[in-house]
Amino acid sequence: MAFWPGITMAAVKPSGAYSSPIKPSPTYLFETARLGFRCFTGADEVLVYQLNSHPQVLYYLHELPVSPEQALATLHNSLLAQYRAYGYGRWAVYIKASHAFIGWCGLKYRPERKETDLGYRFLPEYWGQGYATEAARACIAYGFTHYHLARITARAHIENIASLKVLENCGMQYVQQETAEGVPVKLFEIFP
User: Fold this and answer.
1) pLDDT tens digits, residue range 13-25?
2) pTM
3) Residues with Cβ < 8 Å from 21, sequence gap 6 or more?
4) Closest Cα to residue 154, out of 135, 134, 174?
5) In degrees, to the nearest 5, what angle opens at C-alpha 148 toward C-alphas 144 and 152?
6) Cα 55–59–63 angle (5° rounding)?
7) pLDDT above 50 (res 83)
8) Residues 124, 51: Cα–Cα separation, whole Å
9) Does the N terminus or the C terminus of the chain have fewer Cβ atoms within 10 A?
10) Residue 28: count of CB within 10 angstroms of its CB
Protein backbone atom coordinates (compact mmCIF):
# COMPACT_ATOMS: atom_id res chain seq x y z
CA MET A 1 0.00 0.00 0.00
CA ALA A 2 1.43 3.40 -0.93
CA PHE A 3 1.17 6.34 1.44
CA TRP A 4 2.13 8.77 -1.32
CA PRO A 5 2.98 7.88 -4.92
CA GLY A 6 6.47 6.38 -5.12
CA ILE A 7 6.89 5.95 -1.36
CA THR A 8 6.32 2.57 0.27
CA MET A 9 4.75 1.99 3.67
CA ALA A 10 7.13 1.30 6.55
CA ALA A 11 7.19 -2.22 7.95
CA VAL A 12 6.32 -1.01 11.45
CA LYS A 13 3.21 1.10 11.93
CA PRO A 14 3.76 4.06 14.23
CA SER A 15 1.42 4.84 17.09
CA GLY A 16 -1.13 7.53 16.30
CA ALA A 17 -2.89 8.44 13.10
CA TYR A 18 0.13 9.35 10.98
CA SER A 19 1.32 6.55 8.70
CA SER A 20 4.94 6.40 7.62
CA PRO A 21 5.94 6.45 3.91
CA ILE A 22 9.52 5.52 4.70
CA LYS A 23 11.38 2.32 5.31
CA PRO A 24 14.60 1.49 7.13
CA SER A 25 17.71 0.71 5.13
CA PRO A 26 21.12 -0.83 5.79
CA THR A 27 22.76 1.80 3.54
CA TYR A 28 20.78 4.88 4.51
CA LEU A 29 19.16 6.23 7.65
CA PHE A 30 15.88 5.83 5.74
CA GLU A 31 14.79 5.68 2.13
CA THR A 32 11.89 6.08 -0.28
CA ALA A 33 11.31 4.37 -3.60
CA ARG A 34 13.93 6.54 -5.35
CA LEU A 35 15.86 8.33 -2.62
CA GLY A 36 18.20 7.50 0.24
CA PHE A 37 18.80 9.77 3.24
CA ARG A 38 21.88 9.77 5.45
CA CYS A 39 23.40 11.99 8.11
CA PHE A 40 26.11 14.34 7.00
CA THR A 41 29.58 13.55 8.31
CA GLY A 42 32.65 15.68 8.91
CA ALA A 43 33.92 14.58 5.48
CA ASP A 44 31.03 16.17 3.56
CA GLU A 45 32.46 19.66 3.08
CA VAL A 46 32.44 19.26 -0.72
CA LEU A 47 28.73 18.40 -0.74
CA VAL A 48 27.84 21.43 1.36
CA TYR A 49 30.05 23.60 -0.85
CA GLN A 50 28.31 22.28 -4.00
CA LEU A 51 24.93 23.42 -2.70
CA ASN A 52 25.85 26.58 -0.84
CA SER A 53 28.01 28.03 -3.61
CA HIS A 54 25.45 27.61 -6.39
CA PRO A 55 23.71 30.94 -7.21
CA GLN A 56 20.51 29.25 -8.47
CA VAL A 57 20.15 27.27 -5.24
CA LEU A 58 20.62 30.43 -3.16
CA TYR A 59 18.46 32.79 -5.23
CA TYR A 60 15.32 32.82 -3.04
CA LEU A 61 17.31 32.40 0.17
CA HIS A 62 19.05 35.75 -0.26
CA GLU A 63 22.38 34.16 0.66
CA LEU A 64 25.73 34.71 -0.98
CA PRO A 65 27.77 31.80 -2.35
CA VAL A 66 30.18 30.45 0.25
CA SER A 67 33.87 29.64 0.12
CA PRO A 68 35.14 26.12 0.90
CA GLU A 69 36.11 27.39 4.37
CA GLN A 70 32.61 28.75 4.96
CA ALA A 71 31.10 25.46 3.77
CA LEU A 72 33.22 23.61 6.32
CA ALA A 73 32.04 25.99 9.06
CA THR A 74 28.40 25.48 8.01
CA LEU A 75 28.88 21.73 8.07
CA HIS A 76 30.27 21.71 11.61
CA ASN A 77 28.45 24.67 13.20
CA SER A 78 25.02 24.07 11.72
CA LEU A 79 24.40 20.67 10.15
CA LEU A 80 26.43 18.49 12.53
CA ALA A 81 25.57 20.70 15.53
CA GLN A 82 21.86 20.01 14.97
CA TYR A 83 22.44 16.26 15.18
CA ARG A 84 24.39 16.66 18.42
CA ALA A 85 21.88 19.02 20.02
CA TYR A 86 18.55 17.55 18.89
CA GLY A 87 19.20 14.13 17.35
CA TYR A 88 17.99 15.18 13.91
CA GLY A 89 18.75 17.73 11.23
CA ARG A 90 19.13 18.15 7.49
CA TRP A 91 20.03 14.88 5.76
CA ALA A 92 22.09 14.31 2.62
CA VAL A 93 19.82 13.00 -0.14
CA TYR A 94 20.92 10.56 -2.84
CA ILE A 95 19.31 8.91 -5.84
CA LYS A 96 19.51 5.25 -4.90
CA ALA A 97 19.88 3.94 -8.46
CA SER A 98 22.91 6.09 -9.30
CA HIS A 99 24.20 7.02 -5.81
CA ALA A 100 24.23 10.65 -6.98
CA PHE A 101 24.12 13.33 -4.28
CA ILE A 102 21.26 15.68 -5.17
CA GLY A 103 20.96 17.94 -2.12
CA TRP A 104 19.69 17.95 1.42
CA CYS A 105 16.30 17.77 3.07
CA GLY A 106 15.31 17.46 6.67
CA LEU A 107 14.31 18.92 9.96
CA LYS A 108 15.89 21.70 11.98
CA TYR A 109 14.90 22.70 15.48
CA ARG A 110 14.67 26.48 15.79
CA PRO A 111 14.89 27.32 19.51
CA GLU A 112 14.10 31.00 18.94
CA ARG A 113 10.69 29.94 17.57
CA LYS A 114 10.34 26.72 19.59
CA GLU A 115 9.51 24.80 16.43
CA THR A 116 10.90 22.18 14.08
CA ASP A 117 11.30 23.43 10.53
CA LEU A 118 11.33 21.42 7.31
CA GLY A 119 13.91 22.61 4.81
CA TYR A 120 15.44 21.44 1.54
CA ARG A 121 18.01 22.42 -1.08
CA PHE A 122 18.61 20.54 -4.29
CA LEU A 123 21.07 21.00 -7.13
CA PRO A 124 19.32 22.57 -10.17
CA GLU A 125 19.93 19.58 -12.45
CA TYR A 126 17.56 17.60 -10.20
CA TRP A 127 14.73 20.17 -10.10
CA GLY A 128 11.38 19.39 -11.71
CA GLN A 129 11.57 15.61 -11.21
CA GLY A 130 9.53 15.28 -8.02
CA TYR A 131 12.54 14.70 -5.78
CA ALA A 132 11.84 17.67 -3.48
CA THR A 133 8.26 16.56 -2.83
CA GLU A 134 9.28 12.93 -2.31
CA ALA A 135 12.08 13.94 0.06
CA ALA A 136 9.95 16.43 2.00
CA ARG A 137 7.14 13.92 2.48
CA ALA A 138 9.62 11.33 3.75
CA CYS A 139 11.23 13.77 6.19
CA ILE A 140 7.84 14.83 7.53
CA ALA A 141 6.89 11.19 8.05
CA TYR A 142 10.26 10.45 9.67
CA GLY A 143 9.84 13.40 12.03
CA PHE A 144 6.39 12.31 13.14
CA THR A 145 7.09 8.58 13.43
CA HIS A 146 10.67 8.61 14.74
CA TYR A 147 10.78 11.78 16.83
CA HIS A 148 7.07 12.04 17.69
CA LEU A 149 7.00 15.72 16.77
CA ALA A 150 3.73 17.51 17.47
CA ARG A 151 4.07 19.98 14.57
CA ILE A 152 6.41 20.68 11.67
CA THR A 153 6.63 24.09 10.02
CA ALA A 154 8.16 25.28 6.76
CA ARG A 155 8.77 28.64 5.13
CA ALA A 156 9.30 29.54 1.50
CA HIS A 157 9.92 32.85 -0.25
CA ILE A 158 6.63 34.31 -1.48
CA GLU A 159 7.87 34.23 -5.10
CA ASN A 160 9.34 30.72 -5.01
CA ILE A 161 6.37 29.05 -6.68
CA ALA A 162 8.08 25.65 -7.00
CA SER A 163 8.92 25.48 -3.30
CA LEU A 164 5.44 26.65 -2.28
CA LYS A 165 3.99 23.88 -4.47
CA VAL A 166 6.22 21.29 -2.76
CA LEU A 167 4.85 22.33 0.64
CA GLU A 168 1.26 22.17 -0.59
CA ASN A 169 1.86 18.76 -2.19
CA CYS A 170 3.14 17.49 1.17
CA GLY A 171 -0.17 18.31 2.81
CA MET A 172 1.15 21.33 4.67
CA GLN A 173 -1.36 24.08 5.36
CA TYR A 174 -0.72 27.77 4.75
CA VAL A 175 -0.71 29.79 7.98
CA GLN A 176 0.39 33.34 7.16
CA GLN A 177 2.81 35.58 5.35
CA GLU A 178 5.68 36.92 7.46
CA THR A 179 9.27 38.09 7.29
CA ALA A 180 12.06 35.67 8.18
CA GLU A 181 15.64 36.95 8.25
CA GLY A 182 14.57 39.98 6.23
CA VAL A 183 12.90 37.89 3.51
CA PRO A 184 9.14 37.80 2.77
CA VAL A 185 7.97 34.21 3.25
CA LYS A 186 4.84 32.13 3.56
CA LEU A 187 4.59 29.98 6.68
CA PHE A 188 3.13 26.47 6.43
CA GLU A 189 2.52 23.80 9.06
CA ILE A 190 1.48 20.18 9.35
CA PHE A 191 0.40 18.04 12.30
CA PRO A 192 0.57 14.24 12.72
Assistant:
1) 233 333 445 555 6
2) 0.87
3) 2, 3, 4, 7, 8, 9, 10, 32, 137, 138, 141
4) 174
5) 50
6) 80
7) yes
8) 9
9) N
10) 20
Residues 102-111: pLDDT tens digits? Answer: 999 999 999 9
Architecture of the domain spanning 2-151: 3-Layer(aba) Sandwich (3.40)
In this predicted structure, which of 12-26, 67-81, 156-170 has the lowest mean pLDDT? 12-26
Identify the burial level of 183 via C-beta atoms within 10 angstroms of its C-beta, where 0-12 means exposed, 13-18 middle and 19 or more buried: middle
Of residues 114, 118, 145, the one with CA closest to residue 132: 118
Please report, for residues 22, 23, 146, the alpha-carbon distance to residue 12 in angstroms, rounded to integers and kept in the order given. Answer: 10, 9, 11
Least Cα distance to 44 among 111, 118, 114, 101 occurs for 101
The residue ranges of every structural domain in the chain are: 2-151
Task: Decide if pLDDT at 30 tops 80.
Answer: yes
